[in-house]
Specification:
The chain has 448 residues and is α/β, with parallel strands linked by helices. Helices cover 29% and strands 15% of the residues. It has 2 domains: 88 residues, no CATH class; 330 residues, Alkaline Phosphatase, subunit A, CATH 3.40.720.10. A hairpin with a 6-residue loop joins β3 and β4. It comes from Gimesia aquarii.
Length: 448
C-alpha cells in the first residue's frame, strides 16, 4: 500500500486538491492497485479510442417535464412547463432546457424507451440487463467493466473505466462495478472512496497552493519509489502502479486548473446544495464532473460514468425541476459542444438517462410517482445520425405507441458506436462459460 502524508486544502475553485491526488490504489475487497494491474496484464489489446460518457439521473427523471411534454393534455398531466422550439424544425423540449434546444441537431431523443423494471437502482442503466434475467455467478458487469475486458486500456497510465459519481445514500443508485469480471475491471474512482489516499510528503496547505511545490512533491515521491524498486521492495506491477500514480497524464486530466477558464465557465458552477436534502446524501449537481468526464476520455478513458443530482420527486416536482433541470441543461450542452469543438463527437457517445419515468398524473403533493412503462433518454455524439426524435407516446405520455425502444437496444447502439460486434463478442464468466454482452443485439437503426 502506498500512502504519503499531507493535509487536504481547498483552492479558489472550492475543490480540495486531494480530490485530484487521491488516486492511490483501487482497494475494493482488499485488492490494491498493483494487484489489479497484475490481473489486467492478462487483458488489454490496443484499439481505436472510442468512448462512452454515461450520465445517470438517479431517481427517474420526469420525461413529461423534460423531453416529452404534452401541452394539450389535462392540467393534472401536462404540469407547469411549456414546450419550446429547438433548432431542428418540429422538435420541441422543455422550456427548462434552452441550451440543449439551441443545439438539438447534435442530440437525439428517445421518447419511447421501454424495458425498465421499476426499481430504484442503476443496474439496468449500467449493465443493460434486466433484473429478472438469469445472472451468471458473480453478476453481470457494468458497461465500463465489459469494455475494459474486451478492449483494455488505451494508455497504461489511464484506467479504461472511471466513475466520477458521488457515493449516494440509497446504495442501489451507486454505479455498478465489474460483476463476474473481477476487481481488475472495476471502475477507478478518483474521489478516494474505494482507494487508498495518496497525498504529498511535507507539503503545507500554503505551499500546496503553489504549482511549483506540488511538482517538487511529486518528484520526491518518484525518487522514493525508484529507490524501493531498486532494492526490491516493489515488484513490476507495483512499478506500473507507481507510473499510474505519478503519471502527469492522469493527474493533469483530473486537475481542472489545467483547463481554459473560459471553458470551465461554460460548464457552470458546482451546486452541492441544489436540493435542500442533497448534500449529505450524495445527490449533488457537480457541474465540473461533465468537464472532468471529457478530460478523462481525452486522456484515454474508454468509459466514464457520473451521476447528477436526484430526480425522485414524489413531491414538489416542479419546484425541484426548476432548480435541477436548467443545471443539467447547461452541463450536458457544454459537454456536447466541447466534444464537437475538439473533434471528439464522432468517437465519444453521450447517454443521459435514469432508471424509469414518472407518472403522467400529478399527485396531491405536486409530485410524480414511479412509472416504468415508458421513459426517455438523450443521446449525442458517437457518429450517430443525430437531430431527431425516436418513438412517441400517447397523449398522456403513459405508453409507447410508436417505435418502442428497449433499453438493451440502447446498449447495442453504445457497443456498435464503440466498434464492438455484440453478435459475436463474448466474455467468459467465472465458470469459463462464454457470455454475450447483451441479449438483444440490434442497435437503434435510426441512429446508426
Amino acid at each position: 500500500m502506498l500512502r504519503l502524508e499531507d493535509q487536504a486544502v481547498r483552492l479558489c475553485d472550492k475543490v480540495p486538491r486531494r480530490s485530484f491526488m487521491q488516486i492511490g490504489g483501487l482497494a475494493m475487497g482488499g485488492l490494491s492497485l498493483p494487484q489489479i494491474l497484475k490481473a489486467q496484464a492478462k487483458s488489454g489489446k490496443p484499439s481505436s479510442h472510442k468512448a462512452v460518457i454515461m450520465i445517470f439521473l438517479a431517481g427517474g427523471p420526469p420525461h413529461q417535464d423534460m423531453f416529452d411534454l404534452k401541452p394539450d393534455a389535462p392540467a393534472e398531466v401536462r404540469g407547469e412547463f411549456k414546450p419550446i422550439n429547438t433548432n431542428v424544425p418540429g422538435i420541441q423540449i422543455s422550456e427548462l432546457m434552452p441550451r440543449v434546444a439551441g443545439m438539438m441537431d447534435k442530440f437525439s431523443i428517445i421518447r419511447s424507451l421501454v424495458g425498465a423494471e421499476g426499481r430504484h437502482d442503476s443496474f439496468e442503466c449500467c449493465t443493460g440487463h434486466h433484473f429478472r434475467s438469469a445472472q451468471p455467478q458473480g453478476g453481470w458487469p457494468a458497461l465500463g467493466s465489459a469494455l475494459s475486458k474486451v478492449e483494455g486500456p488505451v494508455n497504461p497510465t489511464v484506467p479504461p473505466y472511471i466513475d466520477l459519481s458521488h457515493t449516494m445514500a440509497h446504495h442501489p443508485w451507486n454505479i455498478k462495478s465489474s460483476g463476474f469480471l473481477g476487481l481488475e475491471h472495476a471502475p477507478f474512482r478518483p474521489d478516494g472512496r474505494v482507494m487508498e489516499n495518496m497525498t504529498l510528503n511535507s507539503i503545507s496547505p500554503a505551499r500546496l497552493n503553489e504549482r511549483a511545490h506540488l511538482l517538487k512533491g511529486l518528484d520526491r515521491f518518484r525518487k522514493v519509489a525508484e529507490t524501493r524498486l531498486t532494492d526490491g521492495t516493489y515488484d513490476g506491477h507495483t512499478k506500473q502502479a507507481l507510473e499510474v500514480l505519478s503519471s502527469s497524464r492522469l493527474v493533469e486530466a483530473l486537475d481542472l486548473e489545467k483547463e481554459d477558464p473560459k471553458v470551465r465557465a461554460r460548464y457552470g458552477k458546482d451546486s452541492p446544495k441544489v436540493l435542500n436534502y442533497s448534500l449529505d446524501k450524495g445527490y449533488q449537481a457537480i457541474m465540473s464532473h461533465f468537464l472532468l468526464a471529457r478530460r478523462a476520455v481525452e486522456a484515454g478513458a474508454r468509459c466514464v460514468t457520473c451521476s447528477f443530482a436526484h430526480f425522485d420527486w414524489h413531491g414538489k416536482n416542479f419546484t425541484y425541476a426548476r432548480k435541477v433541470v436548467p443545471l443539467l441543461d447547461q452541463g450536458v450542452a457544454a459537454l456536447v459542444e466541447d466534444l464537437h469543438e475538439r473533434g471528439m463527437d464522432q468517437d465519444v457517445t453521450v447517454i443521459v438517462w435514469g432508471e424509469f419515468g414518472r407518472t403522467p398524473k400529478i399527485n396531491p403533493r405536486a409530485g410524480r410517482d414511479h412509472w416504468p412503462r415508458v421513459h426517455a433518454a438523450l443521446m449525442a455524439g458517437g457518429g450517430m445520425q443525430n437531430g431527431q426524435v425516436i418513438g412517441s407516446t400517447n397523449r398522456l405520455a403513459e405508453e409507447a405507441v410508436d417505435r418502442p425502444v428497449h433499453m438493451q437496444e440502447v446498449f447495442a447502439t453504445l457497443y456498435h458506436n464503440l466498434g464492438i460486434d455484440v453478435a459475436s463478442t463474448t466474455i467468459e464468466d467465472n465458470t469459463g462459460r462464454p457470455q454475450y454482452l447483451i441479449d438483444q443485439q440490434t442497435p437503434i437503426r435510426e441512429l446508426v
